[in-house]
Amino acid sequence: MIVRVPVVEKILSINDQLAEENRARIQSAGLFSINLMASPGAGKTSLIEKTLPRLKDKCRVAVIDGDIATSIDSDRAAAAGAQVSIQINTGGDCHLDANMLRGALDQTDLTQFDLLIVENVGNLVCPASFDLGVHKSILIASIPEGDDKPYKYPAMYRGVDVLVVNKIDLLPYVPFRMDYFEHGVQVLNPGVLTFPLSCRTEEGLDAWVDWLFQNAIHPTRNLELET
Ligand code: MG
Ligand code: ZN
């Protein structure tokens, strides 16, 4: 008898095992960790740039940047004040997986940090399928992308713990129906914690940074809530 295991399922189950190992490592180091996902240009790196100076002197932050090529984003994170900024070049892969994150975690002593920010590869499709083993997955939507994205990319919206809606300063200039967008989000992910903000004008940033900070200083409490 021949049993065929679809390749995708096999890859995902190996990924889940490695994600569990990452999770155990992050938990024992006692830091809070997030996975930032978004389409290219939605503002992942900009959000990191605006967030880090506000956390300076309050908590120690490591940033791991996934990109297909170049170290532009990790250079920006370092310039913004990340104590450690690690680059993962995926060599063409359009998402991070748990094995890549494991390799990056090997590069640093996690116990030295309060917060780990992982910036995923810009992509609205597959990053949602690959558990990395961090505490919270966060999706950044942005106004110029359009109000139909929850309907077109349901897997991304369904799986995330937090939604950031960036570039709200552009609402007067682009056709974006907030009620249509919000309806799509609520169907997929009812009650998801949402932070509308603008990295450019800095409106709404304080609420986001405060949420991050509260989790970073109480990572143990947060883990208890998770289980
Ligand atoms: Mg980026
Ligand atoms: Zn991919």
CATH superfamily, by name, is P-loop containing nucleotide triphosphate hydrolases
Q: In the CATH classification, which architecture applies?
A: 3-Layer(aba) Sandwich
What does the overall shape look like?
globular
Radius of gyration: 17 Å
The share of residues in helices is: 40-55%
Question: Any overview of this molecule?
Answer:
The protein is α/β, with parallel strands linked by helices and 227 residues long. It has a single domain, classed as 3-Layer(aba) Sandwich (Rossmann fold). The protein has a 7-stranded parallel beta sheet, with helices on both faces. The chain is globular and about 60 Å long. The mean pLDDT is 93. The chain binds magnesium ion and zinc ion (ZN). Zinc ion (ZN) binds next to loops.
Give a concise summary.
By secondary structure, this protein is an alpha/beta fold. The protein has nine helices and seven strands, in the order αβαβαβαββααβαβαα. The model has no long low-confidence stretch (mean pLDDT 93).
What labels would you give this structure?
Rossmann fold, 41% helix, seven-stranded parallel beta sheet, 7 strands, 227 residues, binds zinc ion, binds magnesium ion, globular, 9 helices, alpha/beta
